[in-house]
Amino acid sequence: MSPQQIVSDWIKGEVKLVPHSSPHTHYTGYSERYNQQVFIKVLYNKSKYEAEVETGQSYVQSPFIHGLEVQRTRSETPLYMIISQHLPLVEVTAMNESVMKEAAQLVKTFHHSAQRSLDNDDLSIIKRLEKEVTKHSYEEKVIQLYSLFTPHIAKIDHEYRRLPKVTIHGDLGFRNMYSVNKKLVLIDYEQARPGITWEDFTKFFHRELRNGTLEDAFLTEYGREHEPSDALKHLLYYIEALGIIRYTASFYDEAFANLGEELLHKVKIFLT
């Protein structure tokens, strides 16, 4: 049975595919089971599904309705459904200080109301760094930068461990922030996990808030009390760059790949 038929049978309604560049599949349709228009995300990765469910159940502003694991035949991998309210999403096009203040309030609420389980690996930036570096064979310049961090890593890790942990979104940006009835909402929680606030801000600031005035407006509203040192910030840039390199190796995105190179260049200047 196809994923689309499985989804239709579960929600008790016809669904249509929503075109989207993603390893997941998206559908929408009216559900007799839930008596409303719903949006369905089908995932094939259990850890991402668990992140969506745990975060969706705890985040006070989540449109999450239900999560379901579907076991198929032995030759087929399980699929995981996330059923959410269908929201009339409107892209945010006006970037000004007022929008930044609202975005900061939204992100802060998410950070402190959404809940993800914390384990020992979440307490150390070294664990994250090692996991990312060992996932792929990177270019020589990437490995060289890694070696330059080595003399400083214990001190950076000590700082990371003492900073407060929140639930970060993991893919923060206006592609996951939309206006619904003139109010900002935050969607897609598959990468949510415990971390420090600046793990969400690194890509967001460099990819979308390249105007220093907008970044300042966001941080003024959010608060700067737990801003990390330059050394920790640049380690976060490095880790983010590795993730971008890995992603763009599978999904072509020239602008995003260029951002990865830009972050690596910033790290190189800082370390040398």
Spell out the blueprint of helices and strands:
Layout: H1 3-11, E1 16-18, E2 25-31, E3 36-43, H2 46-58, E4 64-70, E5 79-85, H3 97-113, H4 125-135, H5 140-149, H6 153-162, E6 166-168, E7 177-180, E8 183-186, E9 193-195, H7 197-207, H8 212-222, H9 230-250, H10 254-271
Antiparallel strand pairs: 1-2, 2-3, 3-5, 4-5, 6-9, 7-8
Helix pairs in contact: 3-8, 5-10, 7-9, 9-10
InterPro entries: Kinase-like_dom_sf (IPR011009)
Organism: Fictibacillus macauensis ZFHKF-1
Protein name: Aminoglycoside phosphotransferase domain-containing protein
CATH topology of the largest domain: Aminoglycoside 3'-phosphotransferase, Chain: A, domain 2
Q: Any idea what the shape is? A: globular
Provide the succession of SSEs: HEEEHEEHHHHEEEEHHHH
CATH superfamily of the largest domain: Aminoglycoside phosphotransferase (APH), C-terminal lobe
Helix content: 40-55%
Task: Compute the separation of the termini in Å.
Answer: 56 Å
Radius of gyration: 20 Å
Q: For the largest beta sheet, what order do the strands appear in spatially?
A: 1-2-3-5-4
Beta content comes to 15-25%
What's the CATH C level of the largest domain? Alpha Beta
Helical element count? 10
What's the number of structural domains?
2
In the CATH hierarchy, what is the architecture of the largest domain at level 2?
Alpha-Beta Complex
Structure in words:
The protein is α+β, with helices and mostly antiparallel strands and 272 residues long. It folds into 2 domains: 83 residues, Phosphorylase Kinase, domain 1 (2-Layer Sandwich), CATH 3.30.200.20; 175 residues, Aminoglycoside phosphotransferase (APH), C-terminal lobe (Aminoglycoside 3'-phosphotransferase, Chain: A, domain 2). It contains 10 helices and 9 strands. A hairpin with an 8-residue loop joins strand 4 and strand 5. Helix 5 packs across helix 10 and helix 7 packs across helix 9. This is Aminoglycoside phosphotransferase domain-containing protein. It comes from Fictibacillus macauensis ZFHKF-1.
